[in-house]
Amino acid sequence: MLSIQETIRPSADLRNHYNEISKICKENGEAVIITVNGRGDTVSLSYDAYKTMKSRIELLEILSEAENDFRAGRVAPVSETFDDLRRILQEV
Asked: Whole-angstrom Cα distance, residue 39 to residue 57?
């Protein structure tokens, strides 16, 4: 399971200590929660952490759709599915 450590910093730190916040995100793999008036406002992540999180969310959405299809009976034998895919590919 993915567990991301979090650090909380005021919005002024984003302006005044950007390099430090960037380093926390990149080197420590932490998410930095930026607050405004003491309340969470935005989150800063390294680009790699963002890509990983986005990929995981997309995969979970696909798996959820597949589970819904299975529960609703929208399934077919794998051999039929591959036959359909071969036919589509041959048409292209």
From this structure: 25
Structural tokens at position 48: 């790699």
Give the CA count within 13 Å in the CB-facing half-sphere of 23: 5
- The overall pTM is greater than 0.90: no
Residue 1 pLDDT greater than 90, yes or no:
no
* Long-range contacts at 53-61 (CB < 8 A, ≥ 24 apart): 53/2, 53/4, 56/2
What are the chain's domains? 6-91 (3.40.1620.10)
List residues bridging with 35 in a β-sheet: 10, 40
